[in-house]
Amino acid sequence: MRVTRLYDSKSPVLSMEFFPPRNEKAEAGFGTIVDELFEMDPDYMSVTFGAGGSNRDGSYQAVKTMMDKSIPTVAYLAGYGMAPEEIIEVLDRYRDMGIKTIFVIRGDQPQQEGFAPHPDSFSYASDLIAFIKKRYDFTLGCAGYPEGHQEAESLEKDIEYLKAKVDNGAEYVVAQTFYDNRFYFDYVERCRFAGVTVPIIPGIMPVYSVKMARILAKVCGSTITPELEALMTEVDPDDKQAVLSMGMDFATDQCRGLLNGGAPGLHLYTMDRSSPTVEVVRRLRSENFFRETKVPTAR
Ligand SMILES: Cc1cc2nc3c(=O)[nH]c(=O)nc-3n(C[C@H](O)[C@H](O)[C@H](O)COP(=O)(O)OP(=O)(O)OC[C@H]3O[C@@H](n4cnc5c(N)ncnc54)[C@H](O)[C@@H]3O)c2cc1C
Hints:
Layout: H1 3-9, E1 13-18, H2 24-38, E2 44-47, H3 56-68, E3 73-78, H4 84-97, E4 101-105, H5 125-135, E5 139-144, H6 155-167, E6 170-175, H7 181-193, E7 200-201, E8 203-204, H8 210-220, H9 226-234, H10 240-260, E9 265-269, H11 275-286
Parallel strand pairs: 1-2, 1-9, 2-3, 3-4, 4-5, 5-6, 6-7, 8-9
Helix pairs in contact: 3-4, 5-6, 10-11
Bound molecules: flavin-adenine dinucleotide.
The site of flavin-adenine dinucleotide (FAD) has 23 residues, from strand 3, helix 5 and helix 6.
């Protein structure tokens, strides 16, 4: 499945992201979670990749689980530190599994002690994309950062580098999670001004736990807005149901705002949990947000 064909033919496109299960228990439940979410009729699902190739077998297995269920699947490649030959090995494997779309990210230095990047590894995703584009017929996607990537000198520079990824072959962008839709709409406007014309898809991560949300916001460089801060302070962090309910309400509101504002799709970071994503999508569907429309006007 080539993701760009979806973005070219319908709006909004619904996608869901998973990471490969991290232990045997998670592995045992992974197929069920995928099934529960696939029942919500997403247009495609995607599987992340451990930078440096860590847990690549887990990614292959998760991709295979989805492909065996005939789910339209996107595989990720985070090439940090990997030798070009290793990258080729991974891509050959995905090609042989029938994957047509690869989401290409650079990744970061893995936490693994003693990990040393291969001397011929790629410093930036734009170089990785150029390398892949020359050798394969995959449709490629890349990451964008509405609040700017943490290492970037400025948002302007970061968008300049995003344009390099697109110029080198990326055909769609999935945005890092954010909690204020103004970051996304402002980013799209700046990208268009900079000449980035491909679809830019907002990434939404419901709050699953207050502690985890704070950690992830730091890792992802996503600002916790005063509104969300107030909600996270008010809720009892140990009352799992209350936290989930608050997170689902907040995420649903965000999604409504994004779709009403013309976003070409929603990419939901599931964190390999089914119930919050199921509930957010169920609510949006009951409000007719996923009634199919023709090619988007605002991409
Ligand atoms: C939707 C999404 C999915 C992700 N999935 C994964 C995953 O599966 N596995 C994983 O490990 N990580 C994943 N990440 C995280 C990602 O790997 C990190 O954010 C990483 O730090 C940057 O990756 P990138 O591809 O955006 O890098 P790049 O686009 O290379 O950018 C990295 C930094 O370098 C700067 N830069 C780019 N080009 C240049 C240049 N030519 N000169 C100087 N500076 C430059 C950029 O401004 C930025 O600050 C994901 C992120 C997103 C948004």
